[in-house]
Amino acid sequence: MGDSGHQAKSGSFSERLMLLLDRVEYRRVESSEDMEDIARLRYKAYKAVNLMELTDARLLDELDFDSQAYVFGIYLDERLASTVRVHHVTPDHRASTSGIIFGAEIDAFLDAGMVLIDPGRLAVDPDLLGDDLRALPYLTLRPVAMACEYFSADRCLTACRPRHAGFYKRIFQSETVVALRENLGVYNADGALLVAQVRGQRPSILDRYPIFDSEPFERRLMFADREEVPFAPLTILPTARIAQGGYGKIFSRGT
Fold this sequence. Notes:
The chain is an alpha+beta fold. It has a single domain (about 5-245), classed as 3-Layer(aba) Sandwich (Aminopeptidase), CATH 3.40.630. The chain is built from nine helices and seven strands; from the N terminus they run αβααββαβαβαββααα. It has helices spanning about 5-20, 30-50, 55-60, 105-110, 130-150, 165-170, 200-210, 215-225, 240-245; strands at about 25-30, 70-75, 80-90, 115-125, 155-160, 175-180, 190-195. It has a seven-stranded mixed beta sheet, sandwiched between helices. Helix 5 links the parallel strand 4 and strand 5 (about 155-160). The longest helix has 21 residues, at about 130-150. The relative contact order is 0.14.
């Protein structure tokens, strides 16, 4: 297939993603009840792919409650469909999901004074089918792209199974730091570490995936300290259409 055909196919998928985004709400998970829902979804998703030895103790951990960790639930048609945990990692605050496995490599970036975004604990409901299931990883990664913008990150990390590396290279133009690390302890899988350069990449990423775009007020609702936004709504509607100059809902849905 030539370049023109590939572009048409990509554009069509990008349009479907934007249409699906109209059915999506984001929730920053902070209550114990919502955290239990997240744990159940993780269990269901990880069990479906035999990712780790499952015990209740491992589905929630201390990193879920770290001061620079942000756990999000992604709701499709008001149903919890996926989740991701986003870490804001700095030289003075190094807690992160990937750091447990790739500590030495990540410390090298932090020792150079870089600010990192590290997504982890990504889980998608395996009961979803068809286009919804195919699209959800992209919609789930949207808070990651937003965090990179909000925190002015230098790099975005990805710790994943080696067979998934191509996905992140296509989306974020990530580069391989560790191609294969075997025997990851609690995980029943080998791992790879990828790193994307954030600065300067945003225009090309948004050109291919405009759903990653957002308005500043949405990013603030997602990541600001609660002292700054004490009356933040329970769920947040995406603003990609507004940021792209299109129509859409520009408000957030309250409790």
